[in-house]
Amino acid sequence: MSGANGIERLDTIRVRTPEGAVFSHRLASPVMRMLALLADWMIVSAGWGIVSVAISLLALVSVDAMRAVSVIGYFVVSQGYSIFFEWRWRGLTPGKRMLRLRVIDERGLRLSLWQVVLRNLLRAIDALPLGYFAGGATALLSRRCQRLGDLAAGTLVIWEAPEPAPDPALLGSEKYNTLRGHAPVVARLRQAVSPGEARVAWLALARRDKLDDAARVELFADLADHFKSLTDFPEGVTDGVSNEQFVRNVVDVLFVERRSSGAAR
Predict the structure, then answer these.
(1) What is residue 166's predicted lDDT score, i.e. its pLDDT?
(2) What is the pTM of this model?
(3) Which one, out of 78, 92, 234, 263, has a CA that is 20 to 30 A from the CA of 28?
């Protein structure tokens, strides 16, 4: 897409991870980013309103000290808020989560702490001279909508579409499942596997054709080892079954058979 400034702007980028997987991401628009920033600012302001009441008591001792603590305190609270959440929530803040935005590394690596710190500290430069002008202008001139902080830290802000419901067709046409006929094992698996673990296995199957061969083998070996560690399996359930097929069998009994039985009722 070409903007009014002649810059060939990108709506979608493709990031190839070190494991060989290629993912397409939709870049967040400047408007969406500003809305997320506004939401975070409102949360910080609400929290700061409470803290500032306590700080105002310093005026009883020294007005200058109260003002100095207020300036430093607001900087620490506002920057600490963004750094804490982006680091702990892997690129999210409450505002970004509301708008389905996420900060990612532009090379497909895991977001590092120094990147989070750098992009947030440079927000003060992006805000210059007024109203986030420097950051907004830089984002408009950037093909990937990066403000100064993103350019320095090597980060992007993407929009994550809602995940579609699991599609049984992604599991392929394989009908045989060694777990069928072992109801106690299936019941134990359903109790032991968390929703997050089930989701990771499902996404691995959905994206398996995008992985390099070595990465694909390693990923499904790790997943299979994890599921096998959750409960005991009788002979014949895992013997002669590849790691990828075993993970497929687990996902099948976690998602597909449960949905089918629910529909039958």
Answers:
(1) 63
(2) 0.66
(3) 78
